[in-house]
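Weekly structure sync, notes
Attendees: PL (lead), two postdocs, one rotation student
Agenda item 3: pending single-chain targets
PL asked that the sequence for the first pending target be pasted directly into the notes so everyone works from the same version. It is reproduced below exactly as submitted, 282 residues in total.
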Amino acid sequence: MAESARRFSAVGACIYCGASGDSARLSDEHIVPYALNGKGILPAASCSDCAKETAKFEGRLTRGVFLPIRLQGNFRTRRPKERPSKLPMYDVVEGGFAPINPEYVPIDMYPAFHTLPEFERPGILAGEEPAGEFKNVRLHAWWPPDLQSRLGHLKAAGMKKKSLSGFLFNDFVRLIAKIAHGVAVANYGHASFHPFLLETILNRSTSAAYYIGGTGERLPEKENETHRVTTAIHHVDEKVLLVVTIRLFAFMHPPAPIYVVVAGEFPPRTFFDLGMGNPCSA
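Predicted structure, written out during the meeting:
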């Protein structure tokens, strides 16, 4: 499922804090995380401090929430010798379960659930006031087609535990913001627009839902690629907005949600100068 990498033009400054020069120790930045088979790379685009910050929430997602789908889909890893062949299930307790006393189950028998949230339109595109709270969030869930068979085998073996199914909502919102900001820089340049998402990426935002949302429409069918990321220009109340559309795990069925993210605002210039938008190999 991994696809060949695409390297964009080197940035030469941190796309999150603006640091540059030798002291910034700039490194390459994957637009979609490497561990999710991301193929778009921004060279010299993240300082050492911001790289550590973004790596934290990406790691929590790719080694936690998204680990089952990565393993079952044989996604990339930088440490193939450390790739687990089994995943833990935990004790059931009153009111649910607790992440204690793990028992490890082979990947092909693990009853993995994969979930993604679906959002309403970003507040800025819906004419609403800035807000950080996501309203009417719906969850999409996927599970192996042979789930009942897996559960039956585990029950027959005396297994009385459950798989960990929590979702790191704040980390996920930060990931969506990071992808949108990265592709905006890749397609239009670091200094070409006023960014809206930096506070969300760095976990300082109180208005994430104003810039991040969904389509508010029926989802189209699945697509024949791992992820799909595109950019477009929207005119809203005389503002020229840079809008990014993201579909993670686009190959999933039922269809995966689509995220619409307003990454920033351009200074006044003609629609012709900016173009209609671009797909991105992210």
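Discussion points:
- The chain has one domain: 6-280.
- The mean pLDDT is 90.
Action: rotation student to compare against the earlier draft before next sync.
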